[in-house]
Amino acid sequence: MATAADFIAALNRRDRSAAVDAANRLVANNAMLGDQWQAIARFAVRVAEWPLAIDAMRRFVTRKPGDLDRTLQLADIFASAGRLDDAIALIAPLAQRAPGDARLHHLLGTAYIQVGNAASGLDHLNAAARIWPASGMTWLAIASAQRYASGSTAFAALLAADRDTALAAPTARAAYLYAMGKAWDDLGEYDRAFDAFDVGATLIRGERPWDADGDEAAALALVNELDRSWLDEAALPDLGPTDPIFVTGLPRSGTTLLDQILASHSVVSSGGELNLLEVATGDAGGSVASTVRRRFDTMLNAETAAEFPAARRRAVQTHESPGLVGLGLSWCMVAGTGFEPVTFRL
Description:
Layout: H1 4-12, H2 16-28, H3 37-46, H4 50-63, H5 68-80, H6 84-97, H7 102-114, H8 118-131, H9 136-144, H10 153-165, H11 170-186, H12 190-207, H13 212-225, H14 228-233, E1 245-249, H15 255-263, E2 268-273, H16 277-281, H17 289-304, E3 313-318, H18 322-328, E4 333-337, E5 343-345
Parallel strand pairs: 1-3, 1-4, 2-3
Antiparallel strand pairs: 4-5
């Protein structure tokens, strides 16, 4: 029987597999961990173990069933795991009972938009913006879900929020400026759009400066780990009818457009943009191909399988380590942008 000490010891050894195994056994044994379930849920989120994250967070919520913050954490995990209907079902009744809580409206708005209900999504997002006009992320979500017209009430509301976000935290202010940039672009005011994006990016740069040394170290680690034995292990089996298609490329190179083109085919569904490769390759013992492939396949299916019919392919966007996608995940089809104008099969 696993104990909390086993889980902590695995974390201290940086042995993710052992930590996941210990945590799953704690769940299976319904261990009496109290509020420690929150820490286990957060760990599971970091390593994209969504069923474990949900089980652990549910146990954390049951400690105080009426605690709104705890329920929001569970809903956020549902949304992150792609279980948007579960997130909506959990939060919608709470929003009716607490209509003045901007957090509930924001989460509901983004979830509704992702499931294709743009009208309900915008209703909730606009409610959140009225309650908390300094929320830059809410304005950005609103801007991303619609096109602005000159003189519209929607554009007037966005302009009026400038004073509300002026003293917000840099990340919130940057999100608002990105929303303004998108709105100016909708209106054909391209210089104003560029200026808004530029100021927003400057704010973000101050909060999250580029770590050039870290990027170089990560690239060198991949070069060293992808040795001949790793490549020899990466067999090339025939593609099955439901294997995923990875759309990969440089940022802003057209991956979203290519994803949409592929998803317009009758047997392809869009899986959105997933950022799982860093998780899949972490502590893989030299990033052995089979380990990476098994981990990524498990996480991919956990995150997208519930959303799409089993007989359809999933087109999934990723900007991370495109070479690793092609070599370590050779059971898939890869379509690239920003490198050469070709689609290739590995």
